[in-house]
């Protein structure tokens, strides 16, 4: 499902206009990105659904798979997304 399909499905489910749903999704994405960018230990949680949080990846040595040469990968902050219990349960219904 892509963004336009998601907007259409949520609009149909809630009775809201697709324009309003799209604005809410954009606002949600902006708020999460702003919160994760504001602090090194930021976390946004929707209990049972998703948790967004920042993480840290240490510097490391990696290999170029084509040449085998070693390269240094710098330390970096990352965004992590974890599924909540309700989302995990919904995924298990498909098995």
From TrEMBL:
Pfam families noted in UniProt: Bac_DNA_binding
InterPro entries the UniProt entry points to: Hist_DNA-bd (IPR000119), Histone-like_DNA-bd_CS (IPR020816), IHF-like_DNA-bd_dom_sf (IPR010992)
Alphabetical keyword list: DNA-binding
GO molecular function, a single term: DNA binding
Keyword DNA damage: no
Cellular component annotations (GO), alphabetically ordered: cytosol
Protein name per UniProt: Unannotated protein
Species whose genome carries this gene: freshwater metagenome
